[in-house]
């Protein structure tokens, strides 16, 4: 008679605590305190990830879940864009722009050898142009045999397929079933699909591809047909689920694919279907219902996938979306990084300053109305704010440094007196004491460091030179240091006196410049993904955090993290806000608070975490 150990190679152990690593996979154990048997099993799940830099729909998407590309598309203005965005498995960064703005183009290939095929721009026009991407820049490829928008595309840059789409003929717009094949330099017409269609989904290779659904010609509505391509001929591939006929995305291969989301009037769906080359079965749904989205088209199988962007007028943040979701089959359960509401400030304010951490924080000063500033100081214990002793000088647009029990407030602007301040005050955990002033009156500045080793940089005029000024504080006096390279105010900063980071601000109108300070001089760092002013900041020079603020379209919920070289998107704030402030000596303990015109809301950041998927064994 075989035992569990003979079959599996592991004993059934009696444990007082559950194991916390992958060695538990395939093991059954008895948790003695709980009095139950447990094991670890793989689960299928979509998890939220960092939002796109620019929300978009109808983009040309290609690549994999750890090297994805979104090229062009249509934003919420509405406007068609030439922006290229890269996803590396954690967040989004910017790539080289398309030579021209376009939407509803086909995408195929991988991050370093991909294509944007056809598309539309301006509205009403259809394109024959194709562009090839090498991971950083686009170059013109061979033209399609006919203009088309919303085509089905799959394959690689040297063996690609562009099928169907919507074309503009002398008699008007119509959907087509014609197919072009690409050899790396030119397109050739090949056998047509059975069904005329556009704006569905496709994936696979030139010799083993599949197309799903789409809208048909002549007002015939949406098709539920899937078709398979073997490099020469098209054959029937099964019936697409009723909720996923139009504007969906696909990831994987011809016989192992995911069909993700979609639209059938009037509903957007969270549905995901698994496809084996002939039939569809219900998969794990996404959190966000949407259509006209992008996906990791070139996945080798369906154990991982990526879905991003799209449209759903009924979803918060719509109608264009920046949401990103990752799919995994894993023994680990991932809890995505997120901002969550913290305790509310007692005094609503904007352009305040802060020090400390999520569980031991301090908020002070700020502007409460167009003509009024506050001296209010509040402490935070990780749950709620308590009134503390006030600043001696009322001001907003000031800067801060230090911790809850040893902080520093400096600079600022008094709205009532219409006067900038050089005042400096220190806090001992109970009360504020005035100390030596800065050498220059300034507001709209940023700060870094500690109570006895602080750094102040940037500001708004009276004197234009104040925009670049840097001053150091040694616990007693301020001394002038080397200037910033980029003059600006309304910026953010983080780090220490000898390893500080300055980023964003008003130049005017907006700046994406990042500078690093080594205790002596400032040097250029990697630019922010967007030009922003009036944002929050926290963290360190090699792990900085930027969130919220004002961009060309304000306010923003976008968050960006810095690794010492470049910025990448992170979890977005729950509430878009500008003229907010931040605290936190590390990314993990960051907190955003206040904002215009006089918000009381706060948000706390929690990094991504993973835990093994432990199941209790039952007899049911």
Provide an overview of this structure:
The chain is mainly beta and 620 residues long. The chain has three domains: 4-40, no CATH class; 45-336, 6 Propeller (Neuraminidase); 339-606, Kelch-type beta propeller (Neuraminidase), CATH 2.120.10. It has a four-stranded mixed sheet, with no helix packed on it. Strands 4-27-26-25 form a four-stranded antiparallel sheet, with no helix packed on it. The chain has a four-stranded antiparallel sheet with strand order 5-6-7-8, with no helix packed on it. The longest helix has 5 residues, at 4-8. The protein is globular. The two termini are 26 Å apart. The mean pLDDT is 92.
Keywords summarizing the entry:
single chain; 620 residues; mainly beta; Neuraminidase; 3 domains; four-stranded mixed beta sheet; four-stranded antiparallel beta sheet; 1 helix; 58 strands; globular
Name of the CATH superfamily of the largest domain: Kelch-type beta propeller
Q: What is the name of the CATH architecture of the largest domain?
A: 6 Propeller
Supply the number of helical segments: 1
**Residues in β-strands, percent:** 35-45%
What is the count of distinct domains? 3
Subunit arrangement of the protein: single chain
What is the radius of gyration computed over CA atoms, rounded to a whole number of angstroms? 28 Å
Low-confidence stretches: none
Shape: globular
Average pLDDT reading: 92
What is the total tally of β strands? 58
Distance from first to last alpha carbon: 26 Å
- The share of residues in helices is under 10%
Largest sheet: 4 strands, mixed
Strand order of the largest sheet: 1-2-3-58
Structural class by sheet pairing and helices:
mainly beta
CATH class annotation of the largest domain: Mainly Beta
The name of the CATH topology of the largest domain is Neuraminidase
């Amino acid at each position: 008679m075989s035992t569990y150990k003979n079959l599996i190679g592991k004993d059934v152990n009696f444990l007082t605590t559950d194991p916390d690593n992958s060695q538990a996979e395939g093991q059954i154990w008895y948790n003695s305190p709980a009095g139950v048997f447990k094991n670890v099993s793989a689960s299928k799940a979509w998890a939220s990830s960092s939002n796109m830099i620019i929300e978009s729909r109808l983009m040309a998407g290609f690549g994999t879940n750890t090297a994805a590309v979104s090229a062009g598309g249509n934003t919420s203005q509405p406007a068609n864009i030439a922006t290229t965005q890269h996803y590396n498995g954690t967040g989004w960064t910017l790539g080289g722009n398309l030579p021209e703005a376009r939407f509803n183009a086909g995408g195929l290939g991988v991050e370093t050898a991909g294509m944007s095929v056809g598309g539309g721009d301006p509205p009403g026009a259809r394109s024959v142009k194709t562009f090839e991407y090498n991971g950083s820049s686009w170059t013109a490829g061979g033209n399609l045999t006919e203009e088309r928008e919303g085509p089905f595309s799959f394959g690689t840059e040297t063996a690609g397929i562009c099928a169907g789409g919507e074309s503009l003929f002398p008699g008007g717009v119509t959907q087509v079933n014609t197919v072009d094949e690409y050899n790396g330099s030119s397109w050739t017409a090949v056998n047509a699909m059975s069904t005329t269609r556009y704006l569905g989904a496709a994936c696979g290779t030139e010799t083993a591809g599949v197309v799903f659904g789409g809208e048909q010609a002549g007002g015939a509505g949406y098709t539920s047909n899937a078709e398979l391509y073997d490099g020469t001929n098209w054959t029937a591939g099964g019936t697409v689920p009723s909720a996923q006929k139009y504007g969906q995305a696909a990831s994987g291969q011809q016989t192992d694919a995911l069909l993700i989301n979609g639209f059938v009037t009037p509903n957007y769906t969270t549905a995901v279907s698994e496809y084996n080359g002939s039939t569809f079965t219900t998969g794990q749904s996404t959190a966000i219902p949407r259509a006209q989205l992008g996906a990791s088209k070139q996945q080798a199988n369906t154990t991982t996938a990526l879905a991003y962007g799209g449209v759903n007028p009924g979803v918060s943040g719509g109608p264009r979306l920046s949401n990103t979701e990752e799919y995994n089959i894993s023994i680990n359960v991932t809890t995505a990084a997120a901002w969550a509401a913290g305790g509310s400030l007692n005094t609503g304010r904007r352009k305040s300053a802060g020090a400390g951490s999520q569980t031991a924080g301090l908020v002070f000063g700020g502007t409460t109305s167009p003509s009024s500033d506050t001296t209010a100081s509040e402490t935070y214990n990780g749950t709620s704010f308590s009134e503390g002793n006030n600043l001696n000088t009322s001001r907003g647009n000031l800067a801060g440094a230090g911790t809850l029990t040893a902080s520093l407030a400096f600079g600022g602007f008094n709205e009532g007196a219409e006067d900038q301040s050089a005042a400096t005050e220190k806090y001992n955990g109970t009360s504020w004491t005035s100390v030596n002033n800065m050498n220059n009156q300034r507001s709209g500045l940023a700060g870094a460091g500690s109570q006895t080793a602080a750094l102040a940089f940037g500001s708004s005029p009276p004197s234009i030179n104040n925009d670049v000024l840097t001053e150091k504080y040694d616990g007693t006096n301020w001394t002038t240091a080397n200037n910033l390279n980029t003059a600006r105010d309304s910026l953010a900063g983080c780090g220490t006196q000898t390893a500080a980071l300055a980023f964003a601000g008003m130049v005017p109108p907006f700046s994406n410049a990042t500078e690093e300070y080594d205790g002596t001089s400032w040097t250029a760092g990697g630019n922010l993904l967007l030009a922003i002013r009036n944002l929050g900041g926290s963290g360190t020079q090699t792990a900085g955090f930027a969130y919220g603020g004002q961009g060309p379209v304000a306010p923003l919920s976008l968050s960006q993290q810095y690794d010492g070289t470049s910025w990448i998107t992170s979890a977005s704030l729950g509430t878009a806000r500008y003229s907010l402030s931040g605290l936190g000596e590390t990314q993990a303990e960051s907190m955003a608070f206040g904002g215009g015109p006089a918000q009381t809301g706060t948000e706390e950041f929690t990094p991504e975490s993973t835990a093994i998927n432990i199941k209790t064994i039952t007899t049911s």
